[in-house]
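The instructor's notes for this session suggest beginning with a concrete chain rather than abstract definitions. Hand out the sequence below and ask the class to guess, before any prediction is shown, which regions might be ordered.
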Amino acid sequence: VAVSYLQQLEELYPQNIRIKLELARQLFGVGQINSAYALIKPFLGYQPQTADDWRAQLLNYQIQKNITFAVEPSNKQARRNEEKKLFELSKQFTNAPISNLDFLQLSLDAIYLDEIPQAKQFYQRVSFNRNFKLADTILAAQIGLALGNYKKSAAFYFKAQQLAENYDEKKRYYLSALRTLQQGNYLNEALYAAQANIGEFRQDKDVLTFLTGLALASNRPDLAQKYVKQALELQKK
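After discussion, reveal the predicted structure:
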């Protein structure tokens, strides 16, 4: 929706909160930061109660994020001051009724700010849903790995395997999930997940070779022998 159209609507319906918030979002998107902030300012300064209140708080956070990253890293004191403001704003969202994607972005921001405990809290609120695209799912897996949440990271990699469109991508995320579990020393879980999600990779030599190593690392020579046998049978074909 064009900014000019929303501005006309806002003049016609000055009490309509959603029009104001959408106009503020659009103004922010085109770089009119001050105008966007002026529209949401009346919603700030008190505890959010409604979904619209939280939308205003999120946009305020995004504005502060824009201000923070606009400060050159070489200006260390000014950058630290803005980063502190951003972090303080972020903490109000720990138990907020916001989307999974919002929590994912907040977690990533907290990692950037080196606020790892807060990043972990945000990440705990992230769960897969139908709004997640492949890129979001991979990001969620990578954030989980960075935070040491190996099981959740692997679960997102398996979701990425389902969302991927071609064989090579599916295989990459399948193996990434298993390597993540292995890195977390969840070897039995990795073996179980390997079988549960193997799907079309039952006759893939690379996968069978990896599973052989995984089985040996898990002290399961019986499974390793099974995978070796399957790989040898493939060579005969």
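Then share the key points. The longest helix spans residues 51-70. The chain has 13 helices and no strands.
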